[in-house]
Model the fold of this input.
Amino acid sequence: YKDPKLLQCFHVYCKECLERLVLRDQQGLSLRCPSCRRSTLLPPSSVSGLQPAFHVHHWFEIRDALVKVTKVKGPQKTQCEKCSKNDATNFCRDCGQFICRTCSKIHQTWTELSTHEVISLDQLEGDVTQLVPPTKKVTYCSKHPTKESD
Done:
Protein backbone atom coordinates (compact mmCIF):
# COMPACT_ATOMS: atom_id res chain seq x y z
CA TYR A 1 0.00 0.00 0.00
CA LYS A 2 1.09 3.51 -0.76
CA ASP A 3 -0.48 6.00 1.66
CA PRO A 4 -3.24 3.63 2.86
CA LYS A 5 -6.62 5.20 3.62
CA LEU A 6 -9.43 3.82 5.75
CA LEU A 7 -12.95 3.80 4.31
CA GLN A 8 -16.09 4.07 6.47
CA CYS A 9 -16.67 0.33 5.95
CA PHE A 10 -13.17 -0.24 7.46
CA HIS A 11 -11.65 -1.57 4.24
CA VAL A 12 -8.26 -0.12 3.34
CA TYR A 13 -7.03 1.01 -0.07
CA CYS A 14 -4.12 3.15 -1.20
CA LYS A 15 -4.79 6.82 -1.83
CA GLU A 16 -3.84 6.61 -5.50
CA CYS A 17 -6.32 3.81 -6.23
CA LEU A 18 -9.09 5.64 -4.39
CA GLU A 19 -8.38 8.82 -6.35
CA ARG A 20 -8.88 6.87 -9.58
CA LEU A 21 -12.28 5.69 -8.29
CA VAL A 22 -13.29 9.27 -7.48
CA LEU A 23 -12.33 10.39 -11.01
CA ARG A 24 -14.82 7.87 -12.45
CA ASP A 25 -17.61 9.32 -10.32
CA GLN A 26 -18.67 12.66 -11.81
CA GLN A 27 -19.88 14.21 -8.55
CA GLY A 28 -16.91 13.24 -6.35
CA LEU A 29 -18.93 13.49 -3.14
CA SER A 30 -18.55 9.84 -2.20
CA LEU A 31 -16.97 6.63 -3.41
CA ARG A 32 -18.01 3.01 -3.30
CA CYS A 33 -15.74 0.46 -1.65
CA PRO A 34 -14.43 -1.96 -4.28
CA SER A 35 -14.87 -4.86 -1.80
CA CYS A 36 -18.28 -4.38 -0.21
CA ARG A 37 -19.74 -1.57 -2.39
CA ARG A 38 -20.66 0.52 0.69
CA SER A 39 -20.53 4.25 0.14
CA THR A 40 -17.98 6.48 1.91
CA LEU A 41 -18.66 10.21 2.06
CA LEU A 42 -15.61 12.21 1.05
CA PRO A 43 -14.39 15.19 3.09
CA PRO A 44 -13.91 18.54 1.29
CA SER A 45 -10.26 17.64 0.61
CA SER A 46 -11.45 14.47 -1.17
CA VAL A 47 -9.39 11.26 -0.75
CA SER A 48 -6.52 13.14 0.93
CA GLY A 49 -8.83 13.94 3.84
CA LEU A 50 -9.77 10.33 4.54
CA GLN A 51 -8.46 8.79 7.77
CA PRO A 52 -4.98 7.28 7.32
CA ALA A 53 -4.90 3.53 7.98
CA PHE A 54 -2.35 3.71 10.80
CA HIS A 55 -2.56 -0.01 11.51
CA VAL A 56 -1.36 -0.77 7.99
CA HIS A 57 1.57 1.65 8.41
CA HIS A 58 2.34 -0.16 11.65
CA TRP A 59 2.37 -3.56 9.90
CA PHE A 60 4.87 -2.25 7.38
CA GLU A 61 7.10 -0.94 10.16
CA ILE A 62 7.08 -4.37 11.78
CA ARG A 63 7.74 -6.09 8.44
CA ASP A 64 10.69 -3.79 7.72
CA ALA A 65 12.10 -4.41 11.19
CA LEU A 66 11.70 -8.17 10.73
CA VAL A 67 13.62 -7.99 7.46
CA LYS A 68 16.42 -6.19 9.29
CA VAL A 69 16.41 -8.74 12.12
CA THR A 70 16.67 -11.55 9.57
CA LYS A 71 19.72 -9.83 8.09
CA VAL A 72 21.21 -9.35 11.55
CA LYS A 73 20.76 -13.02 12.42
CA GLY A 74 21.88 -14.24 8.98
CA PRO A 75 25.26 -14.23 7.26
CA GLN A 76 24.93 -10.59 6.17
CA LYS A 77 24.97 -8.27 9.17
CA THR A 78 22.88 -5.12 9.38
CA GLN A 79 24.90 -1.95 9.83
CA CYS A 80 24.27 0.50 12.61
CA GLU A 81 21.63 2.98 11.44
CA LYS A 82 23.25 5.81 13.42
CA CYS A 83 26.93 5.66 12.43
CA SER A 84 26.90 3.16 9.50
CA LYS A 85 30.38 2.00 10.60
CA ASN A 86 29.72 -1.07 12.76
CA ASP A 87 27.39 -4.06 12.81
CA ALA A 88 24.20 -3.53 14.80
CA THR A 89 24.07 -5.25 18.18
CA ASN A 90 21.06 -3.49 19.71
CA PHE A 91 17.67 -2.09 18.78
CA CYS A 92 16.26 1.19 20.12
CA ARG A 93 12.50 0.78 20.41
CA ASP A 94 11.91 4.53 20.65
CA CYS A 95 13.98 5.45 17.58
CA GLY A 96 13.05 2.25 15.73
CA GLN A 97 16.69 1.83 14.70
CA PHE A 98 19.33 -0.85 14.90
CA ILE A 99 22.47 0.48 16.58
CA CYS A 100 25.99 -0.75 17.38
CA ARG A 101 27.60 -1.05 20.83
CA THR A 102 29.30 2.34 20.53
CA CYS A 103 26.12 4.18 19.56
CA SER A 104 24.22 2.26 22.24
CA LYS A 105 26.60 3.63 24.90
CA ILE A 106 26.14 7.14 23.52
CA HIS A 107 22.39 6.54 23.54
CA GLN A 108 22.52 5.79 27.25
CA THR A 109 24.63 8.82 28.16
CA TRP A 110 22.85 11.57 26.21
CA THR A 111 20.13 13.14 28.33
CA GLU A 112 17.66 13.35 25.43
CA LEU A 113 18.09 9.65 24.64
CA SER A 114 18.70 8.20 28.10
CA THR A 115 15.03 7.28 28.59
CA HIS A 116 14.93 5.29 25.34
CA GLU A 117 14.45 1.55 25.61
CA VAL A 118 17.45 -0.17 24.01
CA ILE A 119 17.38 -3.95 23.78
CA SER A 120 20.06 -6.42 22.73
CA LEU A 121 19.44 -8.22 19.45
CA ASP A 122 19.91 -11.48 21.36
CA GLN A 123 16.74 -10.59 23.28
CA LEU A 124 14.75 -10.29 20.03
CA GLU A 125 14.95 -14.02 19.43
CA GLY A 126 11.38 -15.04 18.64
CA ASP A 127 9.72 -11.99 20.21
CA VAL A 128 8.89 -9.60 17.37
CA THR A 129 6.57 -7.57 19.61
CA GLN A 130 9.67 -5.84 20.95
CA LEU A 131 10.10 -4.21 17.53
CA VAL A 132 6.90 -2.26 18.07
CA PRO A 133 7.60 1.27 19.34
CA PRO A 134 6.38 1.84 22.90
CA THR A 135 3.43 4.13 23.43
CA LYS A 136 4.57 7.66 24.15
CA LYS A 137 4.01 8.96 27.64
CA VAL A 138 2.94 12.56 27.84
CA THR A 139 5.13 14.64 30.12
CA TYR A 140 4.33 18.17 31.12
CA CYS A 141 6.61 21.15 31.55
CA SER A 142 7.45 21.79 35.21
CA LYS A 143 7.13 25.57 34.75
CA HIS A 144 3.94 25.40 32.67
CA PRO A 145 1.92 22.40 33.94
CA THR A 146 -0.69 22.66 31.16
CA LYS A 147 1.88 22.40 28.34
CA GLU A 148 3.47 19.22 27.09
CA SER A 149 7.26 19.20 27.19
CA ASP A 150 9.29 18.18 24.14
Remarks:
- Residues 54-73 form the longest helix (20 residues).
- Strands lie at 4-6, 12-14, 30-32, 39-41, 90-92, 97-99, 118-120.
